[in-house]
Amino acid sequence: MRVLYFGTYERDYPRNAQVISCLRRAGVEVGERHVSVWEGRRHNWSAGAGAAARLGLAELELLRRPPADFDAVLVGYPGHFDLPAARRAARGRPVIFNPLVSLADTLVSDRGRFRAGSVAARAIAAVDRHALRAADLVVADTRAGADHLAELAGLPRERVEVAYVGAEERVFGPGWSPAEPLTVLFVGKLIPLHGVETVLAAARLAPELRFRLVGSGQLESLMRDRPANVDWIPWVDYEQLPEELHRAGGALGIFGTSEKAQRVIPNKAFQALACGAPLVTADTPGARELLADGESALLVPPGDAEALADALRSLAADPELARRLSAGGRAAYEARASEAVLGGRWRELVEQAVAGK
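Request: output the structure for the sequence above.
Response:
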């Protein structure tokens, strides 16, 4: 079984690296046809003329005939503009799309880059629909996400399957040993999805707890007025994240209140579970697909700073609770989201697409 991983996808983004790793672990030969557009840009959802020019040149490059034979084309994230070139490259073979997100969901509903109902917002939604419909199979990261993508594009639900995000196991693995005093760790882009305002409000309500925030982005200005118990580090190398998670007393997921936040389980949640760090995240339909409150994570209402502060106080005051969440989270990861499990899942999806074609 041979798969061509195709497009302008961000090569070092965890979803892409992890899918390729899982497929190879499952015995699938993976080649890459990649033209760089997004690498090396920390805020890579740029919508300016420069990004449009880079993307246009990349799409022309992708139209060249790929050098090797393969059984299926898998378009990586972000790849919404790559589907025409992918269909041409496939030459009748199945095209699988790994979109991770809807562009409209991200740029309009969540980040507010474009006003809902505007010409730009409608154009972005049209790009979503055309990309999703052009694939023979779309793979979402949760069942809630799959339902949304199918509805967005008017696709039969059986054309949208699910494979969790997981974590790169060459980087993330067990070893949780919390340092004293207990520190609550937030890692991620400072964007509405992650609910950084809720995290900062919880820190103000629980001044006795230490918070370590790692990340930068759209809401970075909020860091200027952060409370005294919050340390902010704009950037940590990817390879150093396991060390951060291993010594954290608890790891924070997402707390945003958008519709998108209801559907996703972010990379950092899987990374925390893989490392055995006790996870605290929003109680959403997406999270409930994998996690059970009090067993594999502490789940709190989205946007509720007081509930988050109370949960973190409970975690700090009860080492047995922390150990139980560590073990339960790791067990949920191994059962549902490990590379061994997801490798089998991705191979099954490729075989399904090939058989259907």
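The longest helix spans residues 319-336.
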